[in-house]
Write a structure and sequence with these properties.
Elements lengths: L6 H5 L4 E3 H8 L3 H9 L7 E4 L2 E5 H9 L6
Antiparallel strand pairs: 1-3, 2-3
C-alpha cells in the first residue's frame, strides 16, 4: 500500500483523484476503498466521471483536517 499521503501533499493534488489515490490519503488499501464504495460507505462523496469513480480533493482535505483518515 505504501505510506499514506500527508495533508500538505493532498492539498497539492488535482481537483479530482482516483479512489486508489483517495485511499492512500486516508491510509487504507485500494481494495478497501472499492469495497467501501460498493457498500456506500466511502467516507467522502464519490463522483462518476465517465466510467471512472473520482473523489474531490477538497472533500478529502476537509475530512483530514477534521481528523478523519490517518494523514
Amino acid at each position: 500500500m505504501g505510506d499514506p499521503a500527508t495533508l500538505d501533499e493532498v492539498r497539492r493534488w488535482p481537483a479530482l483523484v482516483s479512489l486508489a489515490q483517495a485511499a492512500r490519503a486516508l491510509g487504507f488499501s485500494t481494495a478497501t476503498a472499492y469495497r467501501l464504495h460498493r457498500r456506500d460507505g466511502f467516507p467522502v462523496p464519490v463522483v462518476k466521471v465517465g466510467s471512472r469513480r473520482r473523489v474531490r480533493t477538497a472533500d478529502l482535505v476537509r475530512l483530514l483536517e477534521a481528523g478523519g483518515g490517518t494523514a
